[in-house]
Amino acid sequence: MGEETNSFVWIIGIVLFGYFVLTTWLGKKGSVHSRSMRGFAIAKGKVKPWIVGVSFGASFASANLFLGVPGWAYTYGASTLWWALGCFGLTWIGLLLFAKTFWKQGQKNGGSLTLPQWLGVRYQSKALQVIVALLVLFNIYYIVGQNVGLATMFETIIGIPYIWGIIIGVGITIVYVSLGGAFAQLISDGIQGIIMSVISVLLFISLLWTIGGGWNVLGNLHTQLSNIDESLVASTSEGGPFYSGFAILSIQWLLFTFALLPHLMNKVLTIEKEEDLRTFTLSSGITLFLLSAFSVFAGMAARLLAPGLESADGAIPAYIVEAFPPIIVALMVTGIISAILSTTDSLYLGLTTSIGNDLYKILVVPFLYKNKNISEKKLDQKVVRVSKISLIVLGVLSLYMSIDRPDSLALLTQFGISAIISGIIAPVSLGYFWKRANRPGAINSVIFGSGCYMILTGTGIVENVFQALFFSSIVGFVVMISVSIVVENVVKEKKAVSA
Predict the structure, then answer these.
(1) Which UniProt keywords apply (predicted)?
(2) Burial bucket for residue 170 (CB in 10 Å: 0-12, 13-18, 19+)
(3) Residue 157: predicted pLDDT
(4) Do 118 and 42 form a contact (C-beta atoms < 8 A)?
């Protein structure tokens, strides 16, 4: 076992070093495009649309799909398939519904670089842009989830201390994102997405020799799980996230709205031509299917091959050790590590871009350079510099927040996601087709929607984060519709009186 561990360390070390060299090269190559804020944030038109689509799927996948969700499958069994179904089906449907109009709106006023800016332009409100940018900061919890997943991989497979796994991941990501911005992030995520898709398919194929049963391999898996506990093959799971029909509905709502997350919708803004959206959404859908459909089965199979794990999030690492020879294990581990990094880099880029473009540029620049004669180009370079500095600050902060390992990786990542979605879902979706949607309605919707979520989860009134999101989203819609109508009527009355 000692020799195998040494082999893992060397092989993974060599591959990771190669990965670091590749991403650093991409970073330097992308540095040409990242000198301006537009190039750093979205690298518009510099990356082929099918690669952007694969990058979308890779950024979506994260540590959650390869560690957190299989951990649920290990613990709760077949009911976790509801998550896999929603990831491919509903998330992709959400992307198809939102992408085209979002792209068109994003081309107005010189083009939007971020989701907060998109909302600011749509509702002609700098205040809304700043509020949403502050809300986007909740994505730090998502980054922490990726750090934890990466450290879990290192710790479970090769025994690297938890804290060093976090330091390695944060260090690699900060280097190439700061160098190459969106260009480096999109290309590296595209490569990672292809590798991850191959690994997902291999995980499913491996059931043929780990579980057995030939064409009836899934039936055999079902039988063996039911022999352990009938609840492992039930459509709902007592005590788990999928414990009732309403709980499942709440989760499906989250997955449907998932595409609206800032670090994912920014990829839509990367597309240069409207006709390229078809290629982008098609490659996104294929990647989402490959990454979301198969790892759940490996998580369930791990319950049979490696019962009694201390942490359910280690189900996939434990499974691949049992299923594959050392050399393949090492390659698959590095592939899963790259999956984690593919989301982390996207999150870092989205956060730092928002800090520079939506907070520093709106709140600080008007005071620092109010009476100074400074060109737009120089100002833009200063915003880029602030974004890159904030990248280092966020890296250190996320490292600190990752020191204490959470009980559930999946639940940690969903907390920050849900806080953002509950605030933006109504302003974004109603902003597409409801002509009466206005600035006061959008601002109040963001405040009350996300505020409701934080109150429900913070006080424990609704302990389930998915149900809290569902209720908070309804609040967001009700507040936006009500305030928009009331404000519109007040304006009409004032005009009538003045006339």
Answers:
(1) Cell membrane, Ion transport, Membrane, Sodium, Sodium transport, Symport, Transmembrane, Transmembrane helix, Transport
(2) buried
(3) 66
(4) no
